[in-house]
């Protein structure tokens, strides 16, 4: 293993290790070479055993992002109308003084500190820059809490009910599998290093099946693509278990020892024949039978389920249902087999309760769901009741809500409120930054310390700054230290260095230290090898078993068994005005809205597009490459039609997330998406969206 020596930033030539900070399970290790204080070369770290030295097309251009001509380098104050992007340069002293003064005025008013709302997500997934001093600051001043739901909470809830933890197996062992199902997972694009292992398994004779409404690059490279109707995944899962029990494919011994509620589950899935599921999912009954037979007999067998299948009204129940399948078939027994959604719970790092100081949260502090920002800024709760106090201040970091939030037009209407004081920490003048009162320049990953876990493998990794911060940019940690000091908060909350914070994060892992990470690079968690967590039960549920029947669900007045919840916007139960189901997966050239201003990646993406089946196109007089209008009651956006059989009739696909300011019509796909929430976990329902499409007259 190559040893990288930590040397001062001002050295003429140095090489350091970094970590990709973006919201991706791969969490790639990078090696950065600098000369004269400037980063001149960036590559994947060949010594990282999971990512093995290659980076995706986005992160391979991270130097372009860091040194982009439009980087924010100085604090700014708005001088024009909200949304105009008119700002003047100010000093840090002016910016911090105004922020603290305005926030304190709100906190000390009759509205109180809960009128202040922090809004952040995973623009960086480092333990320090994502969630550390910032959380302590907002907890200590009594601000509203943010329920960070926009990505994965429905699936998390579904997993926790069934398994008591995340669905996880050892991703290093994927290449040993003989049957692999990618379920709602475009693994080749969004988890490329696991895909490499899947391809290796395929070369050894494994069969890869992809279940997805859209023929993604993963589906195109699989042995078979099953085009499921959006939002019907639970119906397929129930039918698969029906086949398993009907044909004697279940693992009776595993069920007897490690599952709870087998009898109730048998009765429930007995109602879900493959023929019934075919009518709902669009997948032929015989294909469902073959899928189960192959998955039960070709072992190890793995289901890679991802976040796409949970972004609809029944998303939580869908994940709950699918995660029952490995217990029914006993595939948890095999190294590499079972189901994988996230490895995040395997990390024994210092918990966020202690690190983020949840003990500081005042009693009865309200929580606002980030997926309901449109309602919150309009003075309403997720359920539509009056929100009191109203949100009077919004502090945005690691997110771009004007582009990424559902029901975009209502979000932007809220951001335009003159009585809303908005602060944005950013690298660029994003759509959200255009509505800010104060914009603060944040550092990129090459300019600050951080430490990373992963939700796609088991490596702990250190990010060492390669260069000094550009311009006057500052790390999130430093910005919130300054705000905490000026507010007068206790020094024990903020008066420690980023290296001290890293040591605090690692305090539960004595075998992994900052010194060891600096000297030796990424370190694997101290887990058994091979890691087969549920081979002999050991689930995190109250019973310690895989809970087909959940007493907790029953106590909440919810269905205690796996079931099927139709989409909120179901074309079978609509008035017909909007007959097409639209899904909006991420544009492969972008990562949500990050990288959407890098010229080469924008060119590769080719502008907003809408994939539409030839039958639906013909019925609307739409020809290939024609401009179209996509619309519903929430909004309308323009795109270029791609007429192709990569989707089923009745389904359309539009990739996101474009910056609004970079589109012809000043909006993106999220002007049509709904802010209704999932059945479990309060998650976003981006893929639960009925639209109509028509040719665009110019």
SSE inventory with pairings:
Layout: E1 13-19, E2 29-35, E3 38-44, H1 62-66, E4 76-78, E5 87-89, H2 92-107, E6 116-120, H3 127-130, H4 133-141, E7 145-147, H5 153-163, E8 179-183, H6 187-190, H7 192-203, E9 207-211, H8 217-221, E10 224-226, H9 233-246, H10 252-258, E11 259-260, H11 262-269, H12 274-281, H13 285-297, E12 301-305, H14 315-322, H15 325-329, E13 338-340, H16 352-355, E14 367-369, H17 373-377, E15 393-397, H18 401-404, H19 408-415, E16 421-426, E17 438-441, E18 450-452, E19 459-463, H20 476-487, H21 498-505, H22 514-520, E20 523-524, E21 546-547, H23 551-555, E22 580-583, H24 599-605, E23 609-612, H25 614-619, E24 627-631, E25 636-643, E26 651-653, E27 690-695
Parallel strand pairs: 6-15, 7-14, 8-9, 8-12, 9-10, 11-21, 12-13, 15-16, 16-17, 22-26, 23-25
Antiparallel strand pairs: 1-2, 2-3, 4-5, 4-17, 18-19, 19-20, 22-27, 23-26, 24-25, 24-27
Helix pairs in contact: 2-20, 5-14, 9-12, 9-13, 9-14, 12-13
Report the major sheet.
6 strands, mixed
Mean pLDDT value: 96
Shape: globular
Return the CATH class of the largest domain. Alpha Beta
Question: Radius of gyration, rounded?
Answer: 25 Å
Please count the helical segments.
25
Question: How many distinct beta strands?
Answer: 27
Helical percent range?
Answer: 25-40%
C-alpha end-to-end distance: 60 Å
Portion in beta strands = 15-25%
Count structural domains: 3
CATH topology of the largest domain: Rossmann fold
Strand order in the sheet with the most strands: 5-4-17-16-15-6
């Amino acid at each position: 293993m190559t040893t990288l020596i930590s040397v001062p930033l001002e050295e003429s030539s140095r090489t350091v290790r970094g970590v990709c900070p973006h919201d991706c399970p791969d969490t790639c290790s990078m090696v950065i070479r600098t000369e004269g204080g400037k980063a001149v070369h960036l590559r994947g770290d060949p010594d990282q055993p999971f990512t093995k030295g290659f980076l995706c097309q986005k992160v391979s251009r991270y130097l372009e992002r860091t040194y982009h001509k439009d980087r924010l380098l100085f604090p700014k104050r708005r001088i024009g109308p909200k949304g105009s992007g008119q700002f003047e340069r100010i000093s840090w002293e002016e910016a911090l003084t105004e922020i603290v003064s305005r926030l304190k005025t709100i906190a000390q008013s009759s509205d109180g500190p809960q009128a202040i709302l922090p809004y952040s997500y995973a623009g960086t997934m480092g333990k320090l820059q994502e969630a550390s001093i910032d959380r302590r600051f907002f907890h200590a001043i009594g601000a509203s809490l943010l329920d960070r739901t926009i990505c994965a909470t429905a699936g998390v809830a579904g997993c926790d009910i069934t398994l008591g933890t995340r669905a996880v197996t050892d991703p290093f062992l994927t290449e040993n599998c003989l049957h692999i199902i990618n379920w709602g997972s475009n693994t080749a694009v969004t988890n490329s290093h696991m895909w490499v292992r899947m391809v290796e398994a395929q070369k050894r004779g494994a069969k890869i099946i992809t279940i997805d409404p859209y023929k993604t690059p993963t589906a195109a490279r699989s042995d078979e693509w099953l085009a499921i109707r959006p939002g019907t995944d639970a119906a397929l899962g129930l039918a698969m278990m029906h086949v398993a029990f009907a044909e004697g494919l279940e693992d009776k011994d595993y069920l007897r020892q490690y599952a709870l509620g087998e009898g109730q589950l048998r009765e429930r899935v007995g109602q879900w024949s493959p023929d019934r599921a075919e009518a709902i999912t669009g997948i032929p009954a015989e294909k469902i039978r073959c899928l189960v037979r192959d998955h039960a007999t070709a072992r190890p067998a793995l289901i890679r389920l991802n976040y796409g299948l949970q972004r609809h009204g029944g998303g939580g129940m869908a994940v709950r249902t699918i995660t029952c399948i490995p217990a029914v078939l006993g595939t948890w027994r095999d190294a590499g087999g079972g189901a994988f959604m996230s490895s995040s719970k395997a990390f024994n790092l210092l918990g966020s309760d202690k690190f983020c100081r949840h003990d500081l949260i005042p009693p009865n502090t309200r929580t606002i769901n980030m997926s309901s920002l449109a309602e919150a800024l309009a003075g309403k709760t997720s359920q539509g009741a009056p929100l009191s106090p109203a949100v009077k201040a919004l502090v945005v970091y690691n997110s771009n809500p004007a582009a990424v939030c559902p029901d975009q037009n209502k979000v932007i209407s809220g951001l335009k409120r003159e009585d809303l004081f908005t602060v944005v920490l950013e690298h660029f003048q994003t759509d959200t930054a255009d509505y800010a009162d104060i914009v603060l320049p944040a550092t990129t990953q090459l300019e600050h310390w951080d430490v990373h876990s992963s939700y796609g493998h088991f490596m702990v990794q250190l990010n060492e700054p390669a260069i000094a911060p550009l311009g006057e940019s500052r790390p999130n940690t430093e910005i919130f230290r300054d705000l905490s000091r000026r507010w007068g908060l206790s020094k024990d909350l903020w008066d420690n260095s980023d290296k001290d914070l890293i040591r605090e994060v690692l305090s539960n892992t004595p075998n992994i230290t900052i010194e060891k990470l600096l000297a030796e690079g990424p370190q694997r968690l101290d887990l058994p090898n091979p890691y087969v967590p549920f081979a002999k039960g050991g689930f995190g549920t109250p019973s310690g078993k895989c809970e087909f029947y959940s007493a907790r669900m029953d106590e909440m007045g919810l269905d205690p068994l796996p079931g099927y919840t139709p989409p909120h916007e179901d074309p079978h139960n609509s008035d017909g005005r909007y007959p097409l189901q639209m899904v909006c997966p991420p544009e492969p050239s972008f990562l949500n809205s990050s990288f959407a201003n890098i010229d080469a990646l924008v060119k590769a993406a080719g502008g907003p597009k809408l994939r539409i089946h030839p039958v639906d196109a013909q019925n609307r007089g739409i020809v290939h490459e024609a401009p179209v209008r996509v619309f519903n009651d929430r909004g309308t956006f323009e795109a270029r039609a791609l007429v192709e059989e990569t989707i089923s009739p009745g389904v359309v696909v539009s990739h996101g997330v474009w910056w609004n300011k970079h589109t012809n019509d000043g909006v993106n796909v999220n002007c049509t998406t709904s802010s209704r929430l999932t059945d479990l976990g309060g998650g976003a329902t981006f893929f639960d969206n009925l639209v109509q499409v028509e040719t665009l007259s110019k």
